[in-house]
Amino acid sequence: MAKNKNIIYISIALIVFIILAFLYCTPVFTGKQLFQHDIVQYRGGAKELLDYRADTGKETYWSDSMFGGMPTYQMGSRFEGDIIKKIDSYLNFLPRPVNYLFLLFAGFFLLGMVAVRNWKYALLGATFFGLSTYFYIIIAAGHNGKVNTIEYFAPLLAGIILVYIRKKYIWGFIVTTLFMGLQIAANHPQMTYYLFLALGFLFLSELVRTIQKKTPLKHFLISSGIIAASCIIGVGMNSQRILANSEYVKETVRGKQILANDSHSPTKSGMDKESILMWSYGKLETLNLFIPRLMGGGSQEPEGKEMMNRIQELVQDNVTSQAEMDRISKGFGGMTYWGDQPGTSGPAYQGAIVCFLALLGFFFAWKKYSYWILSASILTILLAWGSNFIILSDFFIDFVPFYNKFRAPSSILVVIELLFPFIAMLGLYRFFTDTQLTQEYKQKILLYVSGGTLGLILILLLFGKPLLGFYTENEKLYLPPFLLDYLTDERFKLFKIDAIKAFIYVAITAVALFMTLKHKLSQNIALIIIGLVSLFDLWTVNKRYLNDDNYVDKIFAEQPFQTESSDLLTEKIQGNPNLESILANVNVNKTLQTIAEKDKTHYRIFNNILGTFSETNTSYFKSSIGGYHAVKLRRYDDVINEYFQIMDSVKVPNLLNLLNAKYWVVGGPEQPQTIPNPHANGNAWFVSNLKFVNTPNEEIKSIGLIDNKRTAVISASDKEYFTGKKIEADSTAFINLTKYQPNELEFKSQSKTPQLAIFSEVYYPHGWKMFVDEKEVPYIKADYFLRAVHIPEGNHRIRMIFEPEVIEKGKWLSLFSFGLFIGLGILGIFWMNKKKKELVEETA
């Protein structure tokens, strides 16, 4: 009977989650879709991949759409035999973003049912977690891989707790393995890495408990072995993805550095420290977990427009010289954000009630949870500070494996988004149900924590201006007093509203808990009050960052690169800031489309209007010199930093010729101009002169200076390649592209002498195979970042095919791992049922 009741309650909870998710995302009922910046960029960058898939029914693992060409492993490529990813797609069956919200709720509900085995607390905890503001901010931005990974945080932790705490080895193995596999399949290694930093404290906690003999050594060893096996199998189910990405990452900005200069060293790997620590959370800013606008909200919020309008009026009334105006302009940042980060889309608000209950939870929850959660939370916050706590950050960057592969330390606060709701739920459950906690202890802790919390809010309200400042150092330096005073006053008003709300929410919660202690309020009523107030709090804050304005007509979401303007288009876009870029870029898109339609050969476009290395409009229509991607190939990124940051009028055209930039798009968004580049080197060319250099620094410096149509810069380490290979000039020689697919290129050459062919294709040492007359031959790197091959005299057919061995190898490892998971799961369940039958027979 109890089992049937649980099934009913679980079903009701899942229905509640679906209703909540749909209520939050009501525009999906009318067929509208989210307009997400990063997904718009993805649609442009992945266009060639998607077209190839649609035309051939096959997959290409290389695309020339961005940055001169790169693997598609981080661009949405699919892997044959990727069963775990299919399971992920089945779980995400609801329309986006309803699917994300539902799985955030449901995943934490599973964790709650495992940890406290009570559906009411699991349901409440699920709303605490699933309504964390950070999730709504990243959904609005289009960080779908990130939120997809976070969906599986809670159920993965549930599986581990089943093993370590509940001693349910079989079910724990199944749950842990499944959600470990799904976690990796979601493909955001940074989020998974941060989660496992926190889970390390759970392992240490269990180890300490074993040493203290609170847990049997046998259980600890069995549990650790099961979890290790689960993680290995879960990773194994993603072998294609992991092997491909691990091979790829070595050649990217996350891998080994090549150049030696102030910010690079060939002995180091990963990004430079400045890039890693750029988005560091401020120490005081951490309190916006509790008060959302402690340091403002996002850099761009509606109140910011009103503030800017007033500032313009003040400037007109008070500024009398251009010099003063120039000084003032240096001081402006975001109107509605004044924290330590360069900018932000919004605060990592966890909820006033959740933070308050989390503080109580550290006193009320079982020690086997509270110690490791507190330790993990402290480390998370300290690491989020990044450059504001440089001693710890330096240690992790230099000594902790893989930490230097990731940027934006502020994003580690996702761990808090999991642990605070968890400890809040555990503490609340034990507060209401555990008789080991005395009435006096509960009352004392509740009095101290609620008094301290409310007192902190009052201090911030009374002394907030001198304590928090409400301005940045840059603003203080450049803005005159009349502007600085206005800014601080307006910002304090924003903070004050949220601080008062936090005071009210915490007070209501504290009173509800006190009243239950005095038996003047039932447990269920108290839970409903806490749940509803928390829901209102988080819901209203989240709506600042993900609301109806983020939804657009389906055509704009799926076809954001419009090429024709019209009154209807203007009418639909008007007033929606998310769509303004569509209208602004229409003329540029039309220009790009015209180029692509008139010249269907293979070449690249240099778009100097939209921000060459931060847009994918160009990639949508044709191969681009630039693009938008966080994991660029290292050599290409080096070239960007060396040449395109300064835009030298001689060197940059030389580089564009190397990259076969046949057309340049210049001017402005309203009147873009197309400039044909007759000097582009083409898809391939022969050189007869070789310039050997000793270091990568010499190599990259030389390519901007040489006549790259006749001379190639070659690393001295490749001298051996030319042993027994002659190179002689032939003015009549030619090499032409005869077939183009992103993963297969074919050329025809003719020469009276041996030649070195340089291809306008980015060098990548894995997966590319070179054939001359169907015989595979070795190729080398030339001009720092291109491919080259020696071609004998005569007529020849040259082919380049991208066939990464890791894909086939990974496929069989993935299938084997999934088969092992299924096999062990079935055997485990069979053994478990057998033991149950034996137990029944013994007691019969």
UniProtKB/TrEMBL annotation:
| Keywords tagged on the record | Membrane, Transmembrane, Transmembrane helix
Q: Do the record's keywords include Transferase?
A: no
* Regions crossing the membrane: 7-29, 98-116, 123-143, 149-165, 170-186, 192-208, 220-237, 348-366, 371-392, 412-433, 445-464, 499-517, 524-541, 812-832
Q: Which InterPro entries match?
A: Uncharacterised_YfhO
Source domain of life: Bacteria
Keyword Heme: yes or no?
Answer: no
Identification of the protein by name = Membrane protein YfhO
Supply the source organism for this entry. Answer: Chryseobacterium fistulae
